Every structure is written in structure tokens, then in C-alpha cells.
Amino acid sequence: MWKGAAPHILGFDYGNLGVRIFFVISGFIITRLLIQERERIGRISIAQFYLRRAFRILPAAYVCIAVMAGLLAITTQLRWRWVVPAVFYYADYQHRHYAVLGQFWSLSVEEQFYLIWPTILVFLGVPKARYACGALLVAAPLFRMLSVAGIWPTPSGSAFECVCDALATGCLLALLRDVLWSSAGYRRIVQCPMAWVVAALGVGLSCKGLPVFVRWVVGIPLLNVGIAVLLDRYMRMSHHTFMGRFLNLTPIIWIGTISYSVYLWQQPWMLSALPVGVRISCTMLCALASFYLLERRMMWLRGRIIERLVSRCDPGTVVSTERAG
Questions:
Q1: Is the whole-model pTM more than 0.85?
Q2: What three-state secondary structure class fits 159?
Q3: pLDDT in tens, 285-296
Q4: Angle 153-148-95 (CA atoms, 0-180°, nearest 5)?
């Protein structure tokens, strides 16, 4: 019914590239939202953060898991040892990811990040949180090498401590963005049309066949930095570059809006033996059903609950219920 893992192109795992981009952007957006909340109301509400994330992430994910578990049960391929880690978000610590639930390793990393990062930011504050990010940038490549050497027991390509440097890179960009922009050297890099070279070099040095040290300690960190540089470039120059204008097109923004839904449902269809057009169509149909029939309603309900909670604590405070994050 389902094929094996997606193939590599020229020795590079393009699925890993997509996940790295996802992690860097996620780290940046979450950190930026938390900082803006603190600037707006003078503090960060961890409880409201968890409430927002729970309503946004969990309902759609659990519906997807339930459907996949049902299909696996029908085809007698159901193995609870693959389903349970997805349900409790520790699939990144599995040494083997079951095909149709394989996307939950990266979603598990995200959930673990949501649990840890807001607390670090609240209790350490922005200046010390920068040092925490710096420590993760050093620690993750070390854990990858220890894992490859058999000294550390978790998977080198998926365990949180082995991949968190991508998230930390995005967080650090959000924390240091204004400081970095004050540097003439950084401005020249971001404004340079060849800024993509850093990410391209990271891609090249992450290919299979190269020494493990080069891939894990040089290639992946360079790729993370390259993604962050391009992210900053196209945010700052959104109307002055072709890619910036492209990313601001209405259809592209719409795809970004439903990207979580697409990511949830692409795995089973993309690994099926169906024609490519059918796979893409089925992925989009499932994603659209998830977003418009479930996720939007959950976001509306989330807004109403947060509005009531805030109004009870601080009467007269107006809260927008239209936040999509």
C-alpha cells in the first residue's frame, strides 16, 4: 500500500532541507511573537501560549493520527509502538519512523520546543536567552557526533537535542535581528544578491558520502545560518527582490496559511504508489478539509476562550480573536 522513504537527490536529503527551513522559521516566529507580547502587555503569558498552541496543533494532529491508525488497522499493518509516540509527541526518539506517521518526528521536536522555550525566555530574559541559544548551537552538533559514534543513545537525525540548533538559529535571529542590522558587514551580506550562497554551501556540505564530521558539524550549522540569512533578507527586502515579491503573492501566503495541514497529510499520500497528480490532489483535499472544517473552528474557539480569560483578569482589555498563529 505504501512505498518506502522518499529518495535522495544527488546525495542530499531534500526532506531534511524542508524540515530545517520549517524549524528555523518556527523558532523565529515563536520568539518574535513572544517578544512582541512582552512589549505589548509587559509580560509573557506562558499559560496563554500553551493554550494557543494546543488549540492550533493538537486537534488536527490527533484526527490525522486516528485516521492513519484506522487505515493501518484495516490493512492489518497497525503497530501501536509506532502510533503511541506520535500521540504523546516523542516520535523523534524512535530509531525507526513508521512511514505514514513519519512526519510526527519533526512535530514532536516542535512540541518539545514549545514546552521548553517560552519558560526559558520568561525566566532568563532576552539577554540570557541569547546565551542559551548559543549553547544549543554548540551542543547539537556535539550530540549528533556522540550519537553517530554510538556514545549517545538517541537518533542523530531526529532527536531534539540533535536537531534543536535549527530552532535555536531562528530564535537567535529574532533575539538579535536589530543588533545584527546595526552591523555594516551583516547588512552587506543580507543585501547581497548572492546571499543564497551560504545556504547552498550548507546544502552541499550536508550531502551523503561526505565525512560525518563535515555533514553534522559544518554542513548542517552552515545550512541553518544560510536559511536564517535568507529569511531575514526576504523579510527586509520583500518588495525589492523577485523572491520577496513572490513570497508575498496571495496564493503563496494562502499556501503558508494551510502549510501545517499540508504537512500533516502529505506523508501517507506522498509515500503511496498512486500517480503523482493523484497524490498531490489527495494531499490538498485532506489538508483543505482539515483546515477549513476543523482548524479554523478551533482557532475561533481558542480566540473566544482567551478573550474571556483575559477579560476576567483585566476587565476593559480588548483581545483580538483573529490571530492565526
A1: yes
A2: coil
A3: 999 999 999 999
A4: 50
